[in-house]
Design a protein that fits this description.
This protein is of the alpha+beta class and 377 residues long. The strands form two sheets. It has a five-stranded antiparallel sheet with strand order 1-10-9-6-7. A five-stranded antiparallel sheet has the order 2-3-4-5-8, with helices on one face. A hairpin with a 4-residue loop joins strand 4 and strand 5. Helix 1 runs antiparallel to helix 2 and helix 2 runs antiparallel to helix 3. 34% of the residues are buried.
């Protein structure tokens, strides 16, 4: 029921957004006629000395903002018709002044039609680019399963710092393999298309290695090899890899990434720091400490939150960082996705403006399972 409520809520919000956009478009399309009607009424009331006829050119000028070619042409024709009618009514038609005004209205109409044609062409091109980008984004960051094995709930949240983008330099993936459920959450150094390309390399290598490698260390080696071939200069990727196997623990390898936050069933929370600091992926040439696996508890009723530094480094207007540890209680809702959505909403309220960096979060919840009646017997 909670999942159904979440789906209905999102659908309702999308409907409100579409209604708002539709009303704005309708208002912009009616605006030229409203302006021209107002000019006509004021001119009739003021008489020929007011000199308002030139303002009829505002009609086709406004039409070029939201109207198509036919409607913009119609608005220009209406502007010229009103000009002639008002000129005849005021007995000032065919004077040198009105002739110049008529030419100006005609010129603005022609310019508006051309501008409308250019706008429509650019809108079509932008729509094509967005459709391709959305397809690429769906391939790169695929929807993760809501469940990862018996009794394991999964929720994800991604907020891109780039306007109108769904992805950036942060990445995540959950795959079910013969070795258990394996997870990666990472953050590519930098922003823009280059960061997206690097994220694609990491995710592609992880999806393949997660199935092939028997140990989590082997997956890390495969990611290092892939990045060594692709990265140049001083680029790197921080990442945390996890494996949910048998038992009540999660195996974690942290490569220079923020430590996951563990929430126990009794409400306590802490950050599962690695025993040794390891360098990010892509910096193996420095021959530093190899990232070693460690274990964190994952008992029934417990949760583990993986996140990127865009979450904990988000600042409000006073420069205060987002206090993730004190917001852990927001994850105690009945549905993991709704709980994570509440945490994301709180993060955005804390910042009060668009985020300065991408922020990805992945929540694992070990659901409490109860024995069936037959099993208890």
């Amino acid at each position: 029921m909670a999942s159904l409520g979440s789906t209905r809520t999102r659908a309702f919000l999308r409907l409100l957004a579409s209604i708002g956009t539709s009303r704005t478009q309708d208002t912009l399309k009616l605006l030229p006629f409203v302006v021209m009607g107002a000019v006509a009424v004021v001119d009739l009331a003021s008489g020929p000395t007011a000199g308002l006829l030139s303002m009829l050119a505002l009609g086709p000028a406004f039409a070029s903002v939201a109207c198509g070619l036919a409607r913009t042409t119609l608005v220009g024709a209406v502007a010229l018709a009103l000009f002639v009618a008002l000129g005849l009514y005021n007995d000032i038609l065919w004077t040198s002044r009105t002739n110049i005004t008529m030419i100006a209205i005609l010129g603005v109409t022609i310019a508006s039609v051309l501008a409308s044609a250019g706008r429509l062409r650019h809108e079509r091109q932008l729509a094509d680019v967005r459709s391709v980008a959305e397809a690429a984004q769906r391939v790169l960051l695929r929807p993760v399963p809501r469940r990862a094995g018996p009794g394991i709930g999964v929720a994800v949240s991604y907020t891109s710092a780039t306007a109108e983008a769904r992805i950036g330099g942060d990445l995540y993936e959950v795959v079910t393999t013969p070795h258990g459920v394996r997870i990666i959450v990472g953050d590519v150094q930098g922003k823009g298309l280059e960061a997206v390309e690097t994220a694609a390399v990491v995710l592609g290598a992880f999806r393949e290695a997660a199935h092939d490698e028997g140990k989590l260390q082997g997956v890390v080696v495969r990611l290092e090899n892939a990045l060594t071939r692709e990265l140049s200069g001083e680029q790197f990727v921080t990442a945390v890899l996890a494996e949910i196997g048998a038992g009540s623990t999660i195996t974690v390898i942290n490569c220079g990434h923020p430590s996951p936050m563990v929430l126990s069933a009794d409400g306590k929370s802490w950050f599962a720091d690695p025993p040794d600091e390891a360098l990010p992926l892509g910096m193996s040439s420095l021959k530093a400490i190899e990232p070693m696996p460690y274990h964190i508890p994952f008992e029934p009723g417990g949760q583990v939150l993986f996140y990127t530094d865009g979450v904990i480094e988000a600042r409000n207007g006073r420069g205060a960082f987002y206090p993730l540890s004190s917001r852990a209680h927001l994850l105690n809702g009945s549905d993991p996705q709704l709980s994570l959505d509440a945490l994301r909403a709180d993060l955005l309220r804390h910042v009060g403006r668009p985020l300065g960096d991408d922020a990805a979060m992945l929540l694992l919840r070990h659901r409490v399972t109860y024995p069936t009646a037959s099993a208890a017997a």
